[in-house]
Specification:
9 strands; RAVE2/Rogdi; 49% helix; single chain; 8 helices; Protein rogdi; 322 residues; elongated; 21% strand
Length: 322
């Protein structure tokens, strides 16, 4: 054993290679990675541009999310709040009408004197009950010889109907009915188009009601002369005379038309008198307020109508918890 050990210790064998330091391997790998990245940079666009685009996409996603949440809140809360407020305004308007409408008994009676200066030219003393002239004494001066005073009247046996009042009341009732169709328990299930459809129906009804009071329908003179209301007058007027009662804005107006044949050409002279009606003024104020509320809600919803992908079915969890 000793000899063997001695031979081993005196042997000049080949030295084993020292291990490669770990830091050198790491550096070589880093160099290879840098070379690869260098090649990638040569083929790709500027990394700064990519970062900017990513940031822009993130901002757009966040904006869309915020809009979605606001849209959900508007549908769930604000639409119903504004419709409630609108209904209160329209019911107040309905209570101003002198006809039965939305728990309003109507049949309000008022007396008016409509005249011009001098009063002999045209004068009417009348009683308005609801939407009907139940009594009237009318006098006017003829515009052609013998220039005498013409008199006629309206009696309770044959009253004069003001169709404009009933038309406006019907349109107002339609607007209230449209609101009742979307009470608190109603949930909008589609896009903003559904809300705009409801608001559009209400707007159209209110506009028709308002226009029926401020812009009377024009009728040709021959239609006025042959109209059924002319049969309400006692005594009846000659066929070259016509009387008309109508509403225009907050006024009740009487107009008298007198036909004249001048060398084969028919022409007519007219004269009118008016009186202010308080309830008409109040009705128009409430109708205008209702239209403004509708337009306010329509403008808000119209913003979201630009985003066709906004639907109640696509609610996010954050929107549902809002």
């Amino acid at each position: 054993m000793r000899q063997t050990n001695s031979l081993y210790t005196n042997r000049h064998g080949q030295r084993p290679l020292p291990p490669v330091p770990e830091i050198i391997l790491t550096a070589e790998n880093d160099n290879q990675s840098d070379d690869n990245n260098s090649n990638n940079y040569n083929t790709n666009t500027n990394p700064g541009t990519n970062t900017s685009e990513l940031n822009k996409m993130d901002a757009e996603k966040q904006e869309a999310k915020n809009l979605q949440m606001e849209f959900e809140w508007v549908l769930k809360e604000e639409v119903h709040q504004l419709l409630k407020k609108l209904k209160v305004v329209l019911i107040e308007c309905a209570h101003r009408f002198p006809v039965p409408l939305y728990e309003n008994e109507g049949k309000k009676t008022e007396k008016f004197i409509l005249s011009v200066s001098p009063p002999e030219q045209l004068k009417a003393i009348l009683t308005l009950t609801g939407d009907t002239i139940t009594q009237a004494d009318i006098s006017f001066k003829l515009s052609k010889p013998p220039y005498q005073i013409q008199r006629t009247s309206i009696t309770q046996d044959s009253p004069w109907k003001l169709q404009q009042v009933q038309d406006a009341a019907n349109h107002l009732q339609q607007a209230i009915n449209h609101i009742d169709d979307v009470d608190d328990s109603y949930h909008f299930k589609r896009t903003s188009d559904e809300v705009l459809h409801v608001i559009g129906n209400i707007l159209e009804a209110l506009q028709r009601g308002r226009l029926s009071l401020i812009i009377p329908k024009k009728k040709p003179i021959d239609e006025l002369i042959k109209g059924r209301n002319m049969k309400c007058l006692a005594p009846n007027l000659s066929e070259d005379l016509a009387v008309s009662f109508y509403l225009q804005s907050h006024k009740l107006i009487i107009a008298v038309y007198q036909l004249t044949n001048i060398q084969g050409t028919m022409r007519f002279d007219s004269c009118q008198a008016e009186a202010s009606v308080n309830w008409l003024n109040e009705v128009l104020l409430f109708l205008t307020a209702g239209l403004q509320l509708c337009q306010q809600l329509k403008d808000k919803i119209s913003v979201f109508s630009l985003y066709k992908d906004f639907t109640v079915g696509s609610r996010s969890s954050s929107a549902l918890s809002y």
